């Protein structure tokens, strides 16, 4: 009989996001699971990996990304996207349903899961559509999608603007204990490619006001309070929305929220270059909004950090700013940007930061709680927080290369990790 596979990660600093602490421990992995955690473990015959000077954390969970398959495989596939996710330390990802066709049925949820299993990279937990074809009219197959493996529903990319339909979605999902993820963008305003303000006026860009987001969030928060259902606000970008979520939580509304690295890293000043890779939806806001998002993360108003990884082909992005699609790839730079902007800036401790990318999304989506305890799956990442590195195109695993961060020096990086029996290394510990 073949001996069980054993790996000893020796001398690393183990990040425990659940208990908000970091300890110097060894981690013994056997048969794809964590066998022991403690000081100076002995493991005769095990592969030994020296992790001194490195940090070991649970694998990250991205609760909001776009893998483009089916329908837009020229920009990304489930295989290329989940490989890029691993490079960023994300061992679990939740693709949004705005594919072609949209993920609005049991069959399409099963399709995503099958493609992810074939790829063998990050695990996929699909998010289904709220409504059929994401048209905002008729409820999708919510019950059967959950049975197939969907962990939430959303019409991401579109707001469910009919309040009666949204009420029905919330009430129906309450019966299945599913969170409803809302892309808050009030209809009726002209579509803006930039935040309405001084920058958009000076650059002559079509602008949309931040109240488009906050007013939509207010309606959905009140509907969630009325229905006693679970609401999650996606990609929070402005100060008013942060205040509304804080108010709602104080009232006991079952509301959670996420933001993305670009909303606490960039402002609309980045649009001065007219680089379409800075075009996102919702658009980059002012520095006041950026600071409010950071404050929301610091005090727990904003629960989680997601990437909103949005690959687009080179030809799609190399057009006029007004007609270019919104979004950019985000898996491979997310951890470093957050470490720099939140941890090094002393807004969050390392353990708190990791919790925003592990235990918080797991709690919201009902996934197993990430931890590095005996008996848990060996689902972990190894981090080099001393690393200083520059993001370049030749480091990209995504099929697309639409990032505004090429050439930027970043602090801290994911060098590898484990996904059950599988080891993945992008930079092996010295």
Automatic annotation (TrEMBL):
HAMAP family: PyrC_classI_B. Keywords: Hydrolase, Metal-binding, Pyrimidine biosynthesis, Zinc. GO terms for biological process: 'de novo' UMP biosynthetic process; purine nucleobase catabolic process. It comes from candidate division WOR-3 bacterium JGI_Cruoil_03_51_56. Transmembrane segments: none annotated. Catalyzes the reversible cyclization of carbamoyl aspartate to dihydroorotate. Substrate binds at residues 66-68, 98, 281, 312. Zn(2+) 2 binds at residues 156, 183, 235. This is Dihydroorotase. Residues 56-418 form the Amidohydrolase-related domain. The active site is at residue 308. The keyword Hydrolase applies.
